[in-house]
Design goal:
28% helix; 619 residues; Alkaline Phosphatase, subunit A; ten-stranded mixed β-sheet; disordered N terminus; single chain
Length: 619
């Protein structure tokens, strides 16, 4: 037998380890041996599992998912906060203005990665110990028969990488002892760099690389994840330049804490002194000019308990404007980090063959900053009233956006402004303000109508089937020997080159902690459920209201004529309302929505949950 030189063996195994072995081991162990085994090689026949290769010329794929942004924040969708890199991608691609998320982070991410509804994949709430329950729709554990986009593409010849926020690992599994089957590595990603929870400090993150916690280097997390993403892609290009990649890029921005250097927040010094009412009107006008919203749309009134900006004291205006300057700088900074990634792809001559989806927010803008904003969770102090919160924040105004501002989040007035033109916000699964988010699709090689707008109805569970259809990859019948359940999303490829195509995603339910709705063909029935632990200080944990679901009042809206849900038609069209309520019941049964769980169930400990380390759940 010819001897193999050690240096050649090391070189060979080094390449194999990064670019092929992981993917091959992932599938090869499932293939039965098809050769013949005799007593000697003379009467035996070898059988090799062939290398899995993606179709020649298959595009790279990047999914970018931001956090807590709001429909009307970015300049790309009419906002006044500069996002030049998103603008460029949209101007060379498509803007989808009728795209939806689940209404809060973990459910959205579960639906995105699996192409199925969030309760159907057991993520009706969170994977956190205190926010999960021992029921099929709520246990926070995505079943193996509902494979992810990363699992599918890895078995189709792609390298798969994820950076940033994952948010789907149960707390009790989130230590370095594992088990790791519900870490990103267990859900199809070759490499992961980011955090497993729902929120983390941007300068001292709870940081993980692959299957172990690592020490952050002190820079802002968004810069670190971008460096790591570029590192993954450049390393692959060196050893396997013809192999496509899938990158899931999910920065923490703009989830609390809003932390960003003065270099970015000072870009907006004085830009918000006119307040949230002027902001909303300006963005609303921009959106009409850009064709983002219909010409006949009407701006809703301010949400309940939000004061007119002109009614605020000078101190309140000063404080609240600073919160928004930091948020705006944070969003522009996140856009700049995406710009670094895009520039790498240009320089490495990969951009032209990369299909990019950008979802600007995993839900509406966050209502978790309460009426007066938050720096360090003083808003949750039982002793603090509204005026005490304001004074506390004024005393610490210099900490807003800094590493010391551990929970920085803006007030509710700015959250509604960021959601222009809609009412309500994150967690409100009943309202467009909680669930409608911008989508950009970029692939100049395959999109003819660059810079145009698409109004077809879409949901976050559509991106997996959209990606597979465009790549020409059929959903697998098995992944690692496990028979796969059907997908629930609807591919959007039909709309890429046909702006007038009728929507194919015709029915969609929404449910987050009691707030719920059902959509069908432009009609929407919805319930704004109480209690709500962020309901402007009105929630009283000592009062037992858990059985109040039966007292919820359904509303009815025709989104075809009432874009911003202003005119409740429940009394006028009771038959339509009953039809949609029956449809909601059907969807609830099929997708494991029962039993209904709300925030009071969580805070009063009515839901059973296992014990384990709390995986940085945030608020």
């Amino acid at each position: 037998m010819k001897k193999i030189k050690i240096k050649h063996l090391l070189a060979f195994t080094g390449v194999l380890a990064f670019s092929y072995a992981h993917a091959q081991n992932y599938t090869q162990q499932q293939q039965p041996f098809t050769g013949v085994i005799g007593k000697t090689t003379a009467d035996s026949k070898e059988a090799w599992t062939p290398n899995i290769k993606a179709p020649k010329g298959a595009p790279n794929v990047i999914w970018i998912l931001l956090d807590d942004v709001g429909f009307g924040a970015s300049s790309t969708f009419g906002g006044v906060i500069k996002t030049p890199n998103f603008d460029t991608l949209a101007n060379q691609g498509l803007r989808y203005t009728n795209f939806h998320t689940a209404g809060i982070c973990a459910p959205t991410r579960a639906a995105l990665l699996t192409g199925r509804n969030h309760h159907y994949v057991h993520e009706g709430g969170f994977s956190h110990t205190i926010l999960s329950a021992g029921f099929p729709g709520y246990d926070g554990r995505i079943p193996s028969d509902k494979g992810t986009i990363a699992e599918i593409l890895r078995e189709s010849g792609y390298n798969t990488f994820a950076v940033g926020k994952y948010g789907l690992t149960p707390d009790e599994d989130a230590t370095d002892a594992g088990p790791f089957d519900r870490w990103p590595s267990g859900k199809g990603f070759d490499h992961f760099f980011g955090f497993l929870g729902s929120q983390t400090d941007q300068y001292q993150p709870d940081l993980v690389e692959d299957n172990a916690h690592v020490t952050p280097d002190g820079r802002n997390l968004n810069e670190q994840i971008t460096d790591k993403a570029i590192s993954y892609l450049s390393r692959q290009q060196r050893v396997a330049p013809d192999k496509p990649f899938f990158l899931y890029y999910a920065p923490a921005a703009t989830h609390a804490p809003h932390q960003v250097s003065h270099e970015w927040s000072d870009l907006y010094k004085g830009k918000f002194d006119e307040g949230w009412d002027v902001f909303r009107k300006r963005v609303f006008e921009n959106q009409k000019k850009q064709g983002i919203i219909p010409a006949n749309a009407v701006l809703p009134d301010r949400n309940p308990n939000i004061k007119a900006w002109d009614a605020l004291s000078p101190d309140e205006k000063k404080l609240y404007a600073r919160f928004m300057e930091v948020y705006a700088g944070y969003l522009t900074y996140a856009d700049a980090q995406v710009g670094r990634l895009i520039q790498y792809l240009k320089t490495s001559k990969q951009l032209d063959n990369t299909l990019i989806f950008v979802v600007i927010g995993d839900n509406g803008a966050s209502k978790e900053g309460s009426l007066n904003g938050d720096i360090d969770r003083q808003i949750f102090s039982k002793a603090a009233n509204e005026q005490e919160n304001i004074q506390h924040n004024l005393d610490k105004i210099g900490e807003i956006g800094t590493p010391e501002g551990k929970q920085t989040n803006y007030p509710l007035g700015w959250a509604q402004a960021a959601n222009t033109p809609f009412k309500y916000w994150k967690q409100d699964a009943n309202a467009e303000g909680g669930t409608r988010n911008p989508l950009i699709v970029y692939y100049p090689k395959g999109i003819k109508d660059a810079g145009s707008i698409r109004t077809q109805y879409g949901h976050v569970n559509d991106l997996l089937p959209t990606t597979l259809e465009y790549l020409g990859i059929a959903p697998p019948e098995y992944i690692r020997g496990i028979k796969q359940d059907t997908l629930q999303g609807t591919s959007l490829v039909y709309s890429f080159n046909d702006a007038k195509a009728a929507s194919r995603h015709r029915v969609q339910y929404y449910y987050i902690f009691g707030s719920r709705s059902i959509y069908k063909d432009g009609w929407k029935a919805e319930v704004y459920h109480h209690p709500d632990f962020t309901d402007y200080g009105k929630f009283k944990p000592g009062v037992d209201t858990v059985n109040n679901f039966s007292k919820d009042v359904w509303e009815l809206y025709d989104l075809n004529t009432d874009y911003t849900e202003r005119i409740n038609l429940a009394a006028k069209y009771p038959e339509k309302l009953n039809e949609l309520k029956a449809l909601f019941e059907d969807q609830a049964q099929k997708n494991h929505l029962y039993p209904f769980i709300d925030w009071e169930d969580v805070l009063k400990g009515r839901i059973h949950h296992t014990t384990g380390p709390v995986n940085n759940p945030g608020k």
